[in-house]
Amino acid sequence: MDITPEQLYQERMKRVEDAIQLRVPDRVPFFLFSGYLPCRYVGMPLQQAHYDSAKYFAACKKLTVDLAPDLYFNAGSPVKTAGAALDALGMKQIRWPGHGIPANSPFQFVEDEYLRADEVDAFLEDPSDFTVRSYLPRVYGALESFSMLPPLNWMMMGYITTGLAAAITIPAVAEALEALAAAGREAAAWAAGEAALDQELAALGFPVLAGSGTFAPMDFVGIIRSSKGMMLDMYRQPDKLLALIDKLLPTTIDTALALAEMSHNPRVFMAINRGADGLMSLQQFEKFYWPGFKQVVLAVVDAGLTPVIHFQGCFDTRLEYFTEFPRGKVIGLFDRTDIFRAKEIVGDTMCIAGNMPLTLLRAGTPEEIKDYARRLINIVGKDGGFIMSSNTVLDDADPERVRIWMDFTREYGVYR
Amino acid sequence: MNYLLVDAIADMREQEALAAVQELLVSGTDPMTVLALCRDAMTIVGERFESGEYFLPELVLAGEMLSQIADIVKPRIQSDATTEGLQSPKVLLGTVQGDLHDIGKNIVGFMLDVNGIDVHDLGVDVPVERFVEAIEKEKPDVVGLSGFLTVAFEAMKETVEAIEKAGLRNQVKIMIGGGMVDEHIRAYTGADAYGRDAMAAVSLVEKWSGKD
Questions:
Q1: Spans of chain B, pLDDT less than 70
Q2: Which of A95, A111, A238, A281 shows the smallest number of beta carbons within 10 Å?
C-alpha cells in the first residue's frame, strides 16, 4: 500500500519530535540546512534568489523533493528577501549577492555603530522614537529623511496636523514613505511566494524548520551597536550595556511569540554568535550574555514552543550553562563546538544537531563524508536525541556530496 | 610612571593609561619612549590573549587605547626619528574578495604586530588584483588570506592563482585562515599552509623567516 504525503509528513514530524523529546526515533532525522544550496543545485547565480523569486522557490522545491529531508530550511528570512525591496529602501546593513559583493556570494551583514555609544541614553528613554528617527535613516538610505520627522511622542496630544502630518508633506519625507510602500509590496509578494512554497511542500509531506526567529538580547545589541561597540561598552559603560540588554529583552521574546502564532509553526530559530568562545571571557559571558539568552529560551519554551538554537562558532566552555534549559524542549544546532562532548554534557537536556563540516561537503571524499557521519550517528545519535545536520548553512556545498551524506544517514541511521 | 602606563594598558584601565601618557609627556619623556612602553604593554596583552586570560574585547580595547595614544604622541615625534624593526618580516594581510568578515583577520594582525612582525592590512573584500599590486609594491615575505565564508575558498584559490600568474608565487609564502579553513581547503586553494588561530599565523611567519 502506498504511503500518502499526509502520512509521510506525520512520519517525519514524529521522527523529529522523538528526537526533540530525547526519545529514540525509527531512524536519525535529517535537517537540510540549505541556505543558498537550492541555487547551486539548479545552477542559478545566488543573485537570482533575490531577483527571480519564482525561479528560486522552484529551486527550493526541487531540492527538497529530490533530497527528501525530514526538515527543510526556510527559503527566506528578514534579510534573505526580495532584492527589489532592499533596493527600494537603499539597505545599508547588509550586502546581498550582486549588490556590493559578487553575484555568487551569500548575503553578509555590514557592522556599524547604528546606535552610537553616546546615544544609548536616548535609546533607552524612547526606543521607538530613536528607531524611527535615527536608526532607520542610518540603515536605509531611502529613509534618511525620517530624521526630519518631529518626535513621535508629540502625537500623544492627538493634534497630529501640526507635527507629523505637516512633516509628511516635506517632499523628501513623502518620497521616503513611497519607497517604504514600494519595498513593502515587494516584501509581501516574496512572503506570499514563500508561504505558497511551504504549503506546497507540506502537501507533499515535507515540514519546514521554523516559523519564527529571534535573538539573544546581547546579539541584538551587537547588531545595533556593532560587535566592536558592544565589546567596548563592557569596559566603558557596562551599566548602560546591561540596561540596553534589559530594554531589548521583551522585544526578543514578544516578536518570537507573535510570529510563531502567525505561522502556526512551534519552532523558533535563533542564531547565537557573539557569546561564543574567544569572543568574550566566561565572566563576560556570565554577566552580559547568558542571563538574557537564558530568559529568551525559557520564555519561548514556556509558551509551548521549541527554540532551535544555532550555536555559531565554538561554545565548548559554555556547555555546562545549557544544562539549565528545560529537558527535551530545545534543539541545539552546533557549529564548531565539540559535539561529542556536547552529547556528554547536554545530551540529557537538549536534542543535539549539526556539526557535519561544510568543508567535507565541499571538498571531502565520499569515504571521509561517510566516516564522519558514521561517528556522529554512533556517538551523538546513541539512544536518540539527535538530528543529523551540517555545522552551518550549505551555501557552498557540493549537492552530490550532500546526497551521499543523506543517503548514508538514511541507511546507516536506522535504530534497531 | 613608566610601569603605571604599561600596567594601565595591560590591565585595561583606559582612563588611567591616557592620563599616564599626558603626565609622561608633560614631564619631558621622549615620545619614542612612550611608544616603546605601549609596545611592552601590547606584548603583555598578546601574552594574556594567548594564555586564555584575555579575549577579543580586550584586544579591541587595547587597539583603541593604542590608537588614541598614537594620536597624542605622534605629532610630537620628529620626522627624522628612526623607525624600528627594519629587520622584521613583512606580512600582507587581507580578507579575500566577496567576504566582509574582519574579526579573525584583525586578531591575526594584532598578534603578528605584537610579535614584532610588520603588518600591512588591506582590509576586507580585497580584490585579487589588489593583492597582486600590493605584493609588487610592498614586497612582503608572507601573504595572509583570511576568509570566514565558504565563498572565500574560491576567492583564496583565485588569489593564489593570480599571484602565480603574475610571476610572484616564488617570492612569497601564502598562509590562509578563517572559520572553516582546514587541510582540505589548503590543498584546494594552493596555499602553503593554514593556521587554526592567530598564534599559528605567528609561528608560520617566524618559521618561514627563520626566526624560530
A1: 1, 78-86, 211-212
A2: A238
The helix (run of H) or strand (run of E) holding residue A313 is: none
Distance (Å) from the C-alpha of residue B7 to the closest C-alpha of chain A? 16
Residue A154, C-alpha cell as written in the block: 508629540
CB contacts, 8 Å: A278 with chain B: 55-56
Contact between B150 and B180 (Cβ < 8 Å): yes
ipTM of the complex as predicted: 0.91
Higher pLDDT, A264 or A161: A264
Report domain extents, chain B: 2-76, 90-208
Question: Which sign, positive or negative, has the C-alpha torsion A380, A386, A391, A394?
Answer: positive
pTM for the complete prediction?
Answer: 0.91
Amino acid at position A193, single letter = G
Domains parsed from chain A with CATH numbers: 5-35+208-412 (3.20.20.210)
Distance of alpha carbon A27 from alpha carbon A25, whole angstroms: 5
Distances (CA, A) of B172 to A74, A289, B19, B208: 44, 42, 43, 10
What is the predicted pLDDT for the residue at B85?
A: 47
pLDDT digits (tens, 9 = 90+) for A290-320: 999 999 999 999 999 999 999 999 999 999 9
CB nearest B153 (choices: A101, A102, A362): A362
Residue A395 contacts B, CB cutoff 8 Å: yes
Kind plus residue range of the DSSP H or E element containing B174? strand B173-177
Distance (Å) from the alpha carbon of A168 to chain B's nearest alpha carbon: 37
**CA A145, CA A124: separation in Å to the nearest integer?**
22
Burial per residue of A133-154, b for 16 or more beta-carbon CB atoms within 10 angstroms, e otherwise:
bbbbbbbbebbebbeebeebee
Q: Grid coordinates standing for A269?
A: 530559530
B60 touches A at CB < 8 Å = yes
Chain B contact for A95, CB < 8 A? yes
SS3 for A72?
strand
Q: What is the distance between the alpha carbons of residues B20 and B17, in angstroms, rounded to a whole number?
A: 5
Domain B2-76, second-level architecture: Orthogonal Bundle (1.10)
Closest-CA distance, B184 to chain A, in angstroms, reads 7
Q: What is the pLDDT of residues A223-263, one digit of tens each?
A: 999 999 999 999 999 999 999 999 999 999 999 999 999 99
Rounded-to-integer distance, Cα A304 and Cα A211, Å: 14
Note the CATH number of domain B90-208: 3.40.50.280
Asked if A79 and A94 count as a contact pair (C-beta separation under 8 A), the reply is yes
CA B65 to chain centre: 16
DSSP code for A310: E
What letter represents residue A248's amino acid? L
Are B140 and B90 contacting, i.e. CB atoms less than 8 angstroms apart? yes
